[in-house]
Structure formats: C-alpha cells, structure tokens
C-alpha cells in the first residue's frame, strides 16, 4: 500500500515538474517575442504593458490594495482601448 502511494506521489511530482518546465518555456517564448523590438502599433504596446503589469501584480509590492485596484483598472483600460482600436471605424 505504501509503495503504491510512493509511486503515485513520484508520478504526481514528475507531472508537476513537467508542467512547470512547459510554463517556463512558454514564458521564455513570450518574452522573446515581447523583447524582440519596439511595438509597431498600440495593440502590441498594450500587450507589452499588460505583461509587465501582470508580472508586477505577482510581486509582494503589488499586494497593496491601491496598487491592485490601479493594476486592474489599467488592464481594463488597455483591453477596452485595444478593442476600440481593432473595431473598424464607420
């Protein structure tokens, strides 16, 4: 019984490590794209700003409720403004 639990635990840990590795690779790929050069339009600039804000939001400094609200408001603004940019003008 214990051996089976140990085996299941090792499999779970292996799966978690594989998921973490895939996440790191995806993040590295995204950062390579984001750091590849200057934004060519407002949409790309908003994507870069969104990424940086989300990185900051994950830090201890960003846990202040005022910062959390400012981050959320700014992300909503960026989403709204980029959506308006994508819409064809009548």
Looking at this protein, list some descriptive labels.
90 residues, 2 domains, 3 helices
Structure description:
This protein has 90 residues and is mainly α. It has two domains: 36 residues; 53 residues. The chain is built from three helices and no strands. The longest helix has 33 residues. The radius of gyration is 20 Å and the shape is elongated. The model has no long low-confidence stretch (mean pLDDT 90).
Layout: helices, strands, pairs:
Elements: H1 2-34, H2 42-57, H3 65-86
Strand content of the residues, in percent?
under 5%
Helical content class: over 70%
Q: How many individual β-strands? A: 0
Structural class based on helices, strands and sheet pairing: mainly alpha
Describe the largest sheet: none
Radius of gyration, whole Å: 20 Å
The parts where pLDDT drops under 50 for at least 5 residues are none
Order of helices and strands: HHH
Compact summary:
Helix content is 79%, strand content 0%. The chain has 90 residues and is mainly alpha-helical.
């Amino acid at each position: 019984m214990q051996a089976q639990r140990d085996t299941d635990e090792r499999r779970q840990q292996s799966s978690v490590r594989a998921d973490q590795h895939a996440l790191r690779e995806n993040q590295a790929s995204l950062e390579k794209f984001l750091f590849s050069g200057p934004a060519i339009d407002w949409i790309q600039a908003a994507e870069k700003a969104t990424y940086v804000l989300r990185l900051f939001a994950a830090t201890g400094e960003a846990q202040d409720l005022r910062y959390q609200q400012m981050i959320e408001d700014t992300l909503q603004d960026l989403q709204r403004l980029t959506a308006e940019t994508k819409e064809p003008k009548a």
